[in-house]
Write a structure and sequence with these properties.
Bound molecules: alpha-D-galactopyranose
Shape: globular
CATH class of the largest domain: Alpha Beta
Helix content: 40-55%
Number of helices: 11
Radius of gyration: 21 Å
CATH architecture of the largest domain: 2-Layer Sandwich
């Protein structure tokens, strides 16, 4: 990828890149919508990354290009307006620059920038956190600066929350920053505090990308966020992580039905994350799989962020030998389902599910046998 990216950079800018950085997409393993409620979550970094190549300029001009849109976008320093239309992808690197400035971090004056991705877009695999973290590492290197990993993650999230405008939690950026091969990233989101849990040998991840996305996805995410905050308020706690099942039962009559359902999902899901850590440490993959399935059913019933496509995939996967468990991964309302499997599950079984899905929905899902990868890395620094 490094060579392909350098070649593309030369084609676009007629010069060599000085700096190359990469950051991975992620799987949300378990802990659905727990992050902004202060709870724990487990994720895995993928071996698929967003790569950023950059060369500094002396004239202060800032030029942006990427592999999914033609042309070069020139955006003056200090721009606070969000880009719309075909330039909207650039809100990620621009948002990162704004977040770096706001955090008192040095930013480069002028540069030529190119991003390329092997993370599927719009699949719920967090290509957005990957572009945020890889961009931030490249900008830091260009400015001759560095920050601790926690700060890199915080800058990525700030860009997403304040510039891109999505009130996400710390999951995506945290996993993209702290990911390690063959490990799950555990995040205690209130801290936040980052840790890792080894993946038992013989764990395989399969991702089924539906290529569907609810038209109102951003609005639905914000609505869930608000409903959770409303539930916490009625229960009388700062965040749902502070509520117990007994507190929920005691306040059920005061909660709107919607607030009750959202709180029920989050409180149960927080418990499932803890149980998953214990089962993982014991190497008990069948027990982990059951928790993944319970998580999906809870998303479908209580949080109402699944879709007919995701439910169909999870039901098909559950019936396959070699599948420990499956669930929607990420925000939901479309996107992808992921399965934790033994080596027994392979392409043949994937294709069978794909054919059944085609017969039902008229198109095939994209199937990825995903490998875990390392977190955000500066591949080539400035000389
Ligand atoms: C999206 C957000 C994350 C998290 C998940 C749901 O991926 O970006 O912060 O809230 O949804 O768990």
């Amino acid at each position: 990828m490094k060579e392909v990216l350098s070649k593309r950079f030369r084609e676009v800018y007629s010069r060599d890149p000085e700096i190359i950085a990469k950051a991975p997409g992620r799987i949300e393993f378990i802990g659905n919508h727990t992050d902004y409620n202060g709870g724990p979550v487990l994720g895995a970094a993928l071996d698929r990354c967003v790569w950023v190549a950059l060369a500094r300029r002396d004239d202060g001009r800032r030029r942006f290009a990427c592999d999914i849109r033609p042309g070069i976008l020139e955006i003056p320093a200090g721009t606070t307006e969000r880009q719309t239309g075909s330039g909207s992808w650039a809100n990620y690197p621009i948002g990162v620059l704004a977040a770096m400035r706001a955090s008192g971090t040095a930013v480069p004056a002028g540069f030529d920038y190119l991003a390329a991705s092997s993370v599927p877009m719009g699949a719920g695999l967090s290509s957005s956190a990957a572009i945020e973290l890889s961009s931030c590492l490249a900008f830091l290197a260009a400015a001759g600066a560095s920050v601790p990993l926690e700060a890199l993650v915080a800058i990525g999230r700030k860009a997403e929350n304040e510039f891109v405008g999505v009130p996400c939690g710390i999951l995506d950026q945290g996993v993209s920053g702290f990911g390690r091969v063959d490990q799950l990233v555990y995040i205690d989101c209130r801290g936040p505090r980052f840790d890792s849990v080894p993946l038992p040998a013989g764990s395989n991840f399969w991702i089924f990308n539906t290529h569907t996305k609810h038209a109102l996805i951003d609005g639905l995410y914000s609505a869930r966020h608000q409903e959770c905050m409303e539930a916490a308020k009625v229960i009388g706690v700062p965040l749902l992580v502070d509520a117990t099942p007994a507190m929920l039962a005691a306040t059920e009559k005061n909660l709107s039905r919607t607030a009750y359902k959202r709180a029920r999902h989050v409180i149960d899901e927080i418990a499932r994350v803890g149980q998953a850590v214990t089962a993982l440490r014991a190497g008990d993959l069948p027990a982990v799989g059951k928790l993944l399935l319970a998580s999906h059913r809870s998303s479908r019933t209580w949080f109402e962020n699944s879709s007919p496509e995701l439910d169909f995939l999870v039901d098909c996967l559950e019936a396959e030998p070699g599948v420990y468990g499956a669930r929607l991964t990420g925000g939901g309302f479309g996107g992808a389902a992921m399965a934790l499997t033994s080596d027994q599950f392979g392409e043949k079984a994937g294709n069978r599910i794909s054919e059944a899905y085609l017969a039902r929905f008229g198109s095939k899902p994209e199937i990825i046998h995903a490998r875990t990868g390392d977190g955000a890395t500066l591949v080539t620094g400035a000389k």
